[in-house]
User: Fold Pantoate kinase from Natrarchaeobius halalkaliphilus.
Amino acid sequence: MREEATAFVPGHITGFFSAHTDTDPTKAGSRGAGVTLTDGVDVTVRRHAGANAADSSVVLDGESITVEPVSTVLETLGVSARVEAEADLPLGAGFGVSGALTLGTALAANRVFERNLSWNELVTIAHGAEVQAGTGLGDVVAQAYGGIPIRLEPGGPQVNRMDAIPERARVEYVSFGELSTEAVLAGDMEAVTAAGKQALSRVVEEPTLLSFIYASRVFAREAGLLTDRVKTTIDDVSDAGGQASMAMLGETVFAFGTGLSDAGYEPTACATHPAGAMIR
Amino acid sequence: MREEATAFVPGHITGFFSAHTDTDPTKAGSRGAGVTLTDGVDVTVRRHAGANAADSSVVLDGESITVEPVSTVLETLGVSARVEAEADLPLGAGFGVSGALTLGTALAANRVFERNLSWNELVTIAHGAEVQAGTGLGDVVAQAYGGIPIRLEPGGPQVNRMDAIPERARVEYVSFGELSTEAVLAGDMEAVTAAGKQALSRVVEEPTLLSFIYASRVFAREAGLLTDRVKTTIDDVSDAGGQASMAMLGETVFAFGTGLSDAGYEPTACATHPAGAMIR
Assistant:
C-alpha cells in the first residue's frame, strides 16, 4: 500500500480567453490560449489515518490554507488526505496555482488511494471543481495538456478540443500583486468575450509565439483588464523592442525571451513547460 | 533564421490494438493502449541549402536510411532537409522508432522552416504519413500524447479520442529481433481485431498498469502473434511472479518493475515517459 504520491503540475499563464457557462461545470470553461511554465507546483498527497474527507488539510509552502476545489476533489474521490504543496509561483497572481493544486491533488490522490480512475476522469473532476468554485475556467485543462495550449472548445477533456503552438521559449515575468479571478468573472464579461474570440481566431490562423503575444496584448487592452502598473510595464517592454502581455488574471506581466530584462526590470525567468502535469 | 531544431519523441510499445481502415489515412489508425518510454529518439532537422524535397536525407545513428513516412512529411511541408536522428531503441522491434522519426521530423521541420502549423496539424501529417506507408497505425498519436496512452478512437488528433492510465513505472525490455509491421498488418486481422476490442474494454473499465499488462498478454495469445521465444520469456516472467507481454509489433518482451530481471534476463531498463513528444 502506497503511503504518498506526488504530482508536478506546471504553472499556466492565460494570455486571452472567453468564458463559457454551462449548468454542468465539467462542460463549462473557457476558450483561449496560454503558456504552461517550468515553474509550477509539486503536490504531495498522504494518507490521513482514521479521518473523514472533511478533515483533509492543505498546506502550501508550509502554511495551512483552504482551497475549495481541492476539498471538492478529495470529497469526490471519497478520501481523507493531507495535501502538501510547494509552489514556485505566487497564489492569486495569474499563474494557475489553484488549478495546479486541484489537478495535482486529483492525480496524486488517485494513485495513493488506488481509485483506478483514468487520466480524463481525473482531469474532468479537477476542472469541474475549479469551475464550480469560480477560481478558474481553463487552467486545469491547459495544465493537463502542457506546452503552449490553445483551448479551442471549452470544458473537461471529455468534451473540449485542444491544440497547441508547437514551440518552446524562455519566459520572463514580474508580478505586482493579486487580482481576484472570482471578481473579474462575476463582472461584465461582454467585452472580454468579444476580445477573446478575436484573439483566438488570430492564433488559430497563425499558431506562433509572436501572434500569441500580440493577440494577448490586444485582448488585455480591449477587454479593459489592464491596470496602470501592468500597462506601463508592457509599454516599457515595447519601447525596448520586446513583446509582453498581462497574465489573466493577476497583476502580472510576462514576456518571451529577455523582453522584461531588456526593459530594465528584474523578472523571474523560467521556460514554457514541454508537457502537461505528471506523476513524479 | 534558425538553422536547425531538435525534437525528442519517446519510444512507444503497443500492448494491444485493433486496426481501423479508412480511405483517408489521417482518419485511419488503431484503437489500443501502450506505454511511451523515456528511451526514445532525438530528431534534428537541418536546412539543406539549394536542394529540393527529393534530395532530403535521413541518417539514423550515423547510417543513411530511407524512411518513407519521413520523406512524405518533408514533401508535405514542402522542404528539403537533412534529418539526423539518434535512437536509444532498435528500428523494427516494436518500439515505434519509425513513428518517432516521422513525428520528430514534422515538429522540428516546422520550427526550422517556420511553417506555422499547429501541433494538431503536425501530428496529423505525421500520423497520416505513417498509416499510408503501413509502418504504424497508432504510434504517432500515442507518442504525441505521452504517458501510458489509451487510444479510444482511431485517427489523427482532429478525429481521435485519447485517454491515459494515470501512473508511471519502471519498464524493462528484451528484444530478440524484428517483425515486419507491414507483413502483420497485411495478414488476417480478424483475430487481432476481436482480441483488441476485448483488451480495450478491460482497460477502459480499469485503467491501471496491472489490467493493462494482463489485457496485453491475453491479446498477444489470442491474436496469434506470439513467437516461441517471446512466449517462453513471458512464461519465465510469470513463473518468477511477474507480468510481461509482447511489444506490438516486434520480437520484444516488456515488463513493469523488475519482471524480466527477476526471471534471470538481462533487460534494458527505462521508465514510462511522463509526457509526449517535445521540442528541445
Remarks:
- The mean pLDDT of chain B is 94.
- The domain at 4-163 of chain B is CATH 3.30.230.10 (Ribosomal Protein S5; domain 2).
- The first helix of chain B runs from residue 68 to 77.
